[in-house]
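## Example record

The block below lists the input lines for one assembly entry, exactly as stored, with component labels intact.
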Amino acid sequence: MKPFQNISVYLGVEENNVIKEQHPMQETLDQRLTERNIKPTAVRLLVLKAFMAQEAAIGLADLENRFDHADKTTLYRTLKTFEEHKLIHSIDDGTGALKYALCQETCDCTPEDLHVHFLCTVCNKTFCLNDTPIPQINLPTDFSLDSVNMVVKGLCSDCR
Amino acid sequence: MKPFQNISVYLGVEENNVIKEQHPMQETLDQRLTERNIKPTAVRLLVLKAFMAQEAAIGLADLENRFDHADKTTLYRTLKTFEEHKLIHSIDDGTGALKYALCQETCDCTPEDLHVHFLCTVCNKTFCLNDTPIPQINLPTDFSLDSVNMVVKGLCSDCR
DNA sequence: GCACTTTTGCAACCCGGTTGCATAGGCTCC
DNA sequence: GGAGCCTATGCAACCGGGTTGCAAAAGTGC
Ligand SMILES: [Mn+2]
Ligand SMILES: [Mn+2]
Ligand SMILES: [Zn+2]
Ligand SMILES: [Zn+2]
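Predicted structure tokens for the full assembly:
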């Protein structure tokens, strides 16, 4: 595979040769990246588009499958860059592979932005339950709380 | 390393050549294993003893370090056997390596036996909060709940 | 065009976990 | 106490997800 960073060609491969100017979504993608101080390269636009196109969280392997023409490392670093700039957050749902989901516009990845995640045991999709804050718990005395990871397993609405 | 299953020698290595008959703890270890239908071999007794000697959860790597003379695979399978027979349960605290902790005597690893786990961000020890049941949460409609993994990070009583 | 920075590709590595297979240990039955 | 059997152990190799080092390509400013 030859490196190829030209945006329209990259997008063309994905989008049946519809080039940049014909993408109405393009501006919002661009904007979403630049808002978070991420330079909008071809791969990054594609990855962001993937995130915006589906509700379920996305793992590195998913991206590898979806973008045959992009390298694993590049996709990996794209995820890291997105995470650093708080465009996405990582989710450890216990399946052994990290997944990522878009942060909400207002998100700053502070403890208040933490929320419950849901893993469907049938379709293996993972969802952010953004409206389900993590409940308070009582720790033993002399233990102090920093952060909480809460993953609920069950059946999603499609699988039940 | 030569395989060696003789219990007293194994225990001797660990216990400065105090042999089986001189262990007051021996019977309770034996008992705890046979209660769960696990044949009390040398390695198993040692591993169980390790679990009973400390409160914090134990990972495979810990066992490898503690028992130079025992093979990784054997220790791995010992953990699996213990888990299958519900003598211990596994804890995924997000550190990348599974840890294990003794089940309570009454434990049957049913959803009711689930509890919160605590990972200290300083000493990296993980504890069962057996007295901290996992709080109820409200799922979106059409989602059904199966199980929950809840890991709290913070400072333990020794590290604060 | 040229020099410089950033992004991408490729290969190799790391680590925790897991498997296949051979051997040793211990147990039963005679 | 030996033959046969089942289990536990050891060893080596593998696997998958993640990560790093380094070189080439692409983008940027002049
Ligand atoms: Mn989320
Ligand atoms: Mn526990
Ligand atoms: Zn589902
Ligand atoms: Zn601590």
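Chain A touches chain B through 32 residues (CB under 8 Å). The beta strands of chain A are 58-59, 88-91, 99-102, 116-120, 126-129, 144-155.
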